[in-house]
Design a protein that fits this description.
The structure holds 2 protein chains of 2 kinds. By secondary structure, chain A is of the alpha+beta class. In chain A, the strands form 4 sheets. In chain A, strands 15, 16, 17, 18, 19 and 20 form a 6-stranded mixed beta sheet that branches. A 5-stranded antiparallel beta sheet of chain A has the order 1-2-5-4-12. Chain A has 18 helices and 20 strands. Chain A folds into 4 domains: 6-130, Sulfite Reductase Hemoprotein, domain 2, CATH 3.90.480; 164-312, Sulfite Reductase Hemoprotein, domain 1 (2-Layer Sandwich), CATH 3.30.413; 330-376 and 385-426, Alpha-Beta Complex (Sulfite Reductase Hemoprotein, domain 2); 441-581, Sulfite Reductase Hemoprotein, domain 1 (2-Layer Sandwich). Chain A is globular, with a radius of gyration of 23 Å. In chain A, a hairpin with a 5-residue loop joins strand 7 (206-212) and strand 8. Chain B is an alpha/beta fold. Chain B has a domain at 42-133. In chain B, strands 1-5-4-3-2 form a 5-stranded parallel beta sheet, covered by helices on one side. Chain B is globular. The chains are: A alpha+beta, B alpha/beta. Chain A binds chain B through residues 7, 11, 14, 17-18, 21-22, 25, 30-31, 35, 38-39, 142, 169, 172-183, 248, 256, 259-260, 264, 293, 297-299, 301-302, 304-305, 307-308, 311, and chain B through 52-56, 58-60, 62, 66-67, 81, 83-84, 86-87, 90-91, 103, 106, 109, 113-114, 116-122, 125-130, 132-133.
Chain lengths: 593, 134
């Protein structure tokens, strides 16, 4: 993975010093909250229902074992519920004693969050993070956010080119960009280097796809204006092919057009998707004209040199794991077959949690953080440390935080799979449910989040409890279940095959259920927002509704047809009917919500 | 690498109040395109921050300084805070009139942070990677 230079290290340390100074001015009263807010946000510090929330950047999801250990230390020593005075907090529906603390949380944009660190300890936490080249730079605020890619970047068998060097170069370019720190709204970029889009790129403000043109040259297809929220929109392609070395110049043109013309009068209409939709072709023309000026008048200063691409790429060469090719294939296949026959759970784990790799001797293994008794994507200090040990032993010291809120080990030798499985199982991280119903995405919801209308975690927990039976989960097959506590869509409900959206009616928790959304993967098909199946349901009805949807699928499916394909084939009607049949509290649905 | 010659000068609130409409001074509104402005005889362009979180003037300053090669003063007025002065300097501003409650010494300190940055800007157009290998 990318190794920090002295310059990079010094930069992060200076950022920590700058934030410490801002915090001191905030505490001595010379910096007011309104003015401090964007400064703390651009360092990852939110203020939530009970306590601040810290979002730590994990650029394009890549993380080293020593960084995981520091995240564990922060969870253990700083993420303390009892250090916060919550006497004045609006508790709403949250059951505070049951909320987890002393843990980190993996997010859908491959970052890590904490929910209980008091602001008074923020500067110390930032120093700790800086000690392992980590920070919270631009993980929030109206600026260019963490640039994401897919968890299989650099190892996927269907890869055209490794997106990580480009993601790193873009990370550096966007870091503390003087012109683009006060955009109309946040700005998210995703890059995929593979044929299958596992990065939800069409749902991003800018979605980039690496491809080769007819001459074999590498470049990007550029999409702009995707996004979730109140107005879910799939991004539009504004460039079919942009030479790879021009990507920073082109991004500059896009973001400048957005900074100048994006709406600032209404924050719900401030994302670039609204501008792109309103302007249509003239937006593209504007970007192209600006790009031309950058090339011809400014001299294209951010053209990426081959030397720079080579320098950055050199950090992403595969680790030498000393695989012995002679003993490889047959022997490994034999071991795995024997072990799998021996234990059906291992066999299932191989099927669900282990993915093929560019190197035939290696596999990508996902540790499942979707298990009973813990919120989706939560990892406590002990688990982070033990997982870091596995990362050292089995994956050359490197892991990936995934969009689906798990941890992926990218460099696992085939012959070590049985051992890794046993170790992961001991830690409770080997549940063979990756891609299945219980591998759901969920935001922190109303338990923590000030914006949420309803809680996500109790819904996730109830569904996890109901769907524990592995035979049943495997029979249901691959299903994207996404839960958001409000329309801001942090739980990506728009792209779920089944989406659950928390809504507020008269101060009560209600949930709108949608069907047929897609993030753009091969399983899910063309990216599209799901459609609501009717008026929202009471909290107590949600698990029964999901069960009714799944039962309908089982009744309607043809041989081996996936849930999403059945929905596409038969349409929403049979699902609606089944869902309405289990209404109790909402037996007479109104037109509302 | 181009030396940072255009250091931002900070001024207390109220400075220049009497010369707002003097000849040679052009006030550009935030929705104006600097490329359409008549800069003949203009020695100072005023760019307004209606709120410190409205970043349009950063792009306007960049276009004036870098695209149009404007060599006069670019002055930030309005909701100008010490925590944005470094951004202003890098975007091509040469003067910033601070909001009344802002501490000028704190502002001067912010200008000393980060000797260099990753990306090029209006003053030092080359990014770190190009400057480092030049």
């Amino acid at each position: 993975m990318y190794q920090y230079s002295d310059f990079d290290r010094q930069f992060v340390q200076q950022r920590a010093e700058q934030f410490r100074d801002q915090l001191e001015r905030r505490f001595n009263g010379t910096l007011l909250e309104d003015e401090f807010k964007p400064l703390r946000l651009q360092n990852g510090w939110y203020v939530q229902r009970f306590a601040p929330m810290l979002r730590v950047a994990v650029p394009y999801g890549e993380i080293a074992s020593n960084q995981m250990r520091v995240l564990a230390k922060i969870a253990r020593e700083f993420d303390h519920k009892e250090d916060n005075d919550i006497s004045n907090a609006v508790v709403a529906l949250a059951d505070v004693p049951s909320l987890p603390d002393r843990c980190a949380h993996f997010t859908t944009r491959s970052n890590v969050q904490y929910n209980w660190i008091p602001l008074s300890r923020a500067a110390d936490v930032m120093d700790l993070l800086a000690s392992v080249n980590m920070h919270g730079i631009q993980t929030s605020g109206n600026c260019i956010r963490n640039i994401t890619t897919d968890a299989l970047a650099g190892i996927a068998v269907d890869e055209v080119a490794d997106p990580r060097p480009f993601a790193e170069i873009m990370r550096q370019w966007s870091t503390l960009h003087p012109e683009f720190a006060f955009l109309p709204r946040k700005f998210k970029i995703a890059i995929t280097g593979a044929r299958e889009d596992r990065s939800a790129s069409a749902w991003h403000d800018v979605g980039l796809r690496l491809l080769r043109n007819v001459d074999g040259d590498l470049g990007f297809q550029v999409r702009v204006g995707g996004g979730m929220g109140r107005t879910p929109i799939i991004g539009s392609v504004i460039r079919e092919f942009l030479p790879w070395n021009q990507i920073l110049n082109y991004l500059e043109a896009i973001v400048r057009a957005y900074n100048r013309f994006g709406r600032r009068d209404n924050k719900y209409k401030a994302r670039i998707k609204i501008l792109v939709k309103a302007e249509g072709q003239s937006f593209t023309d504007q970007v192209e004209a600006e790009y031309k000026d950058i090339l011809e008048q400014d001299g294209a200063p951010h053209t990426i040199t081959q030397a720079e691409l080579d320098r950055v790429s050199s950090f992403f060469v595969a680790p030498d794991l000393g695989c012995d090719r002679k003993s490889a294939d047959a022997k490994i296949a034999h071991i795995l077959k024997a072990a799998a026959e021996d234990d059906i759970e291992f066999s299932r784990w191989l099927t669900q949690n282990v993915k093929p790799h560019q190197n035939p001797d290696l596999r990508a293994v996902t540790l499942s953080f979707k298990r009973l008794g813990a919120a989706p994507g939560d990892a406590n200090a002990e688990q982070l440390e033990r997982a870091a040990d596995l990362v050292d032993r089995f994956s050359a010291g490197e892991a990936r935080v995934t969009h689906e809120q798990n941890l992926l080990l990218p460099w696992v030798r085939c012959d070590q799979l049985p051992e890794l499985w046993r170790e992961a199982r001991r830690l409770g991280l080997a549940k063979p449910n990756i891609g299945l119903l219980s591998d759901m995405i969920a935001c922190p919801g109303g338990d923590f989040c000030d914006l949420a209308n309803a809680r996500s975690l109790p819904i996730a927990q109830a569904l996890t409890e109901r769907y524990q039976d592995l035979d049943e989960l495997h029979d249901l097959g691959e299903i994207d279940l996404h839960i958001s506590g409000c329309i801001n869509s942090c739980g990506h409900h728009h792209s779920g095959h089944i989406g659950v959206l928390g809504v507020d009616k008269d101060g009560q928790e209600w949930y709108q259920i949608s069907l047929g959304g897609s993030d753009g993967t091969r399983l899910s098909g063309e990216p599209v927002p799901g459609k609501a199946i009717g008026p929202s349901f009471a909290a107590a009805e949600v698990t029964d509704v999901i069960e009714a949807l799944l039962d309908t699928y089982r009744a309607q499916r043809t041989d081996k047809e996936t849930f999403i394909n059945t929905v596409k084939r038969v349409g929403a009607e049979p699902f609606k009917t089944a869902a309405n049949a289990v209404r109790v509290a909402t037996a007479r649905p109104t037109a509302a919500a | 690498m181009i030396a940072m010659t255009q250091k931002l000068q900070l001024f207390p609130a109220g400075s220049f109040d009497t010369e707002a409409s003097a000849p040679g001074i052009l006030a550009l509104s935030n929705d104006a395109d600097p490329r359409e402005a008549d800069l003949a005889g203009v020695h100072t362009v005023l760019l307004n921050f209606p709120s410190f979180s409205d970043g349009r003037a950063f792009s306007q300053a960049f276009l004036l300084r870098r695209r149009l090669g404007f060599t006069g003063e670019i002055r930030a007025i309005g909701d100008v805070l010490v925590d944005q002065v470094q951004q202003m300097q890098r975007s091509g501003f040469t003067q910033a009139v601070l909001r009344a409650d802002q501490n000028q010494d704190v502002g001067e300190r912010q200008l000393e942070r980060y000797p260099t940055f990753y990306q090029g800007d209006a003053i030092a157009p080359q990014p770190h990677f190009a400057a480092a290998t030049a």
